[in-house]
Amino acid sequence: MRADAVRNRAKIVEAAKAAFAERGLETQMEDVARRACVGVGTLYRHFPTKDALVRALIIDKMERQAEAVKARLDADEDPWETFAGSLLHGAEQQLGDRALAQVLAQQPHSTWRSAAEEDTQLAARMAEALERAQRAGVVRPDARPDDIPLVMCGLGAVVQNERSWERYMRLVLDGFRARDGDPLPG
Amino acid sequence: MRADAVRNRAKIVEAAKAAFAERGLETQMEDVARRACVGVGTLYRHFPTKDALVRALIIDKMERQAEAVKARLDADEDPWETFAGSLLHGAEQQLGDRALAQVLAQQPHSTWRSAAEEDTQLAARMAEALERAQRAGVVRPDARPDDIPLVMCGLGAVVQNERSWERYMRLVLDGFRARDGDPLPG
DNA sequence: CACAATACGGAATCCGGATTCCGGTTGTCA
DNA sequence: TGACAACCGGAATCCGGATTCCGTATTGTG
Q: Which of A167, A173, A176, A177 to mutate to test the interface with B (most CBs of B within 10 A)?
């Protein structure tokens, strides 16, 4: 790849990250190009489609998140802290990236969203965090790994709309903690 | 208003309800018109804008929901049942209406969404249900009325994406029940 | 240094809807 | 029943963005 092409690609990715984080999915390709000081044509030579661009950004974000969870698991601290901390970290991630929150909350993308979650092992690692917490007896035993996407999905909506996402998170976390009451259905 | 105009308006409202419930906000004005066996022009004479049409449908849904909550309050049964039942009823409502779920989960509409909630007294009545449950000691005392929209907003996203919305609801409800642990922030 | 081979910019094109317009109908009232 | 206003249908128009195209400008190779 030619040197200028490499340089431009980097500029584009940076610009796109910033733009989508700030404005969300409505960000226009021209905005990205302008921010990157590049023509739309160039943008399209690097990413054939707006969707492809978004996909790349999201997968990148998820990889980072997966790493963060791994770090927590490796540190092997208090199981509850590991679990809750990972979830809260994810929430902050969404708070700082409108596009991420939108993708997590919306349906049309769910196909590759879940694919990405698995590819990046994010799902597996979160499951591990959950299981440890359950073994330690600090999370209800009837919680399941796939309850986590459930919560992150809801969070995506909350983060975009309401100011008190932190109350939401705490409420849900207390739901995970709960031990009395009816067991979860299905 | 001329007789045929009245008839057409009714047909349009019915068609719109069905179409938006089924397909969500992506429903096209022409689809609605076709279902109502009416030209787009007619549709536009009754509702000046797609947005106006959606607004009308949503407000209607909320009114019904407000009535349902009132009915529960009037019945004056077990406070927990009243509270949880109202929330679950809302969830079912969203399950049966893609557009409703989308509006509740998405941001751009939040302006008139909240307006509608207040107009229809839905907010006030949910608050009442919450308070009763708190007085009865079955809901944590640090929960607040505006935690409810939070949850319904998240639910909007969950309902669209994941199959197990019921697990989500139960988890959240257990969060409301919780009494130990840290108090909710902010 | 000259020539391909690659990249670039950004105006022009394309497209999927929403919204408008107007000649033709229908309902109503005297 | 006749006249007129209120309605209709749906083709034509408009618009915001994504995507394509092509004449130029850069690179790096012999």
A: A167
